[in-house]
Structure prediction request, 407 residues.
Amino acid sequence: MTTITDRPFEGRTQKILATLKDAGQLKHLQTIEGPMGPTVKLRGYGEVACFCSNNYMGLANHPEVVEAGIEGLRRYGAGTASVRFICGTFECHETLEAKIAEFYGCEAAYSFTSCWNANEAIFPTLCEPGDLIISDELNHASIIDGVRLAGVIKKGLHKGVFKHADLGDLRTKLEAARANVQVTGAIWVVTDGVFSMEGDIGDLPGLRAVCDEFGALLVVDDSHGTGVMGLTGRGTHEHWGMDATKVDYFTGTLGKALGGAAGGYVVGSRKAIDLLIQRGRPTLFSNALPATVACSAQKAIEILMREPQRVQKLRDNVAYARSMIREAGFQVLESPTAICPIIVHDTAKAIAMSKRLLELGVFVIGFGFPVVPEGHARLRCQVSAAHEKQHLDAFGEALRKLRKEFR
Ligand SMILES: Cc1ncc(COP(=O)(O)O)c(C=O)c1O
Prediction:
């Protein structure tokens, strides 16, 4: 009798997993036994300082954020049991979306169950055949897949990639598009605000200027910039002293600085949001954001608007953590963002180093292929406003020990 493991697919899967294991590239899911904070209780390791979460503002376990979620659960129950356009739009979705639009200073916002979904909604819905989408080569996977999907759904949509942060290359591509008689519609330029793996910042003023030269729309996914960048944490545009309306559309997540639970959104013109409500497949065919999450996220945004000093604390922590990394003898990709990557090139080495850091009481994940290109493996250290000096010092001490062991 043939068993399940005899099937060709099972054998193939087994082989791929074995190859990853042999190459030292197998990821191990670490289980946390309590809330997300500056330290976490990690199964098998106990309490460790957490330097790999996106809890940039330290709001994931803020008492008011937790209470708002509990209150939402009591008031609305566990979920909508529906997509938004049937019977899944609760009052808390409307108030959350109004709060997001207010936070950005833009006309309208619409929520999704993730930013991944937001990116898979915006391009296939708003773009049409004859349009061109040009995307930075290091944009997040959800943008890449959203653009790919748009190309499949809208036949005759043109796609292109420009070299990372290279305005000259973007201009060359746009000049070629101008000469291409098949590009008859809108041109969309897409960038991350803060690049998730490098921690560098998109040159939004430069991109805006190029977009204006070619009549293009600018879309910014500011998942890692929202709540972090600019004096009041409004995002990467604020860092550059730009009004949010200079960006045509933002996408972003509620799963990082804005409470850390889950959810994403698109921010922009009322008309575009209306079209997303009418035609966006992730919202037409998938359930709404759970009410408890919507309530928590709204509270997180309120706290951030009320306490902009949190942004300064994060900035101070980032400067201190970056000095610790350099002092330990590692090179960190320079930028003022909370993402501090230490490039170690080899995936197996990155994983081994992150394992050693855990033994030293510091939780940092090693990233390798396919999350980053082959040969670009790294330890991605992330800093939070929730970190206090003792956490940052523990981080520095562990790095110094690590450096001695992995010269
Ligand atoms: C730039 C960027 N966009 C989108 C996402 C996806 O966000 P979500 O977890 O809300 O789907 C991420 C998450 O890592 C991200 O870094």
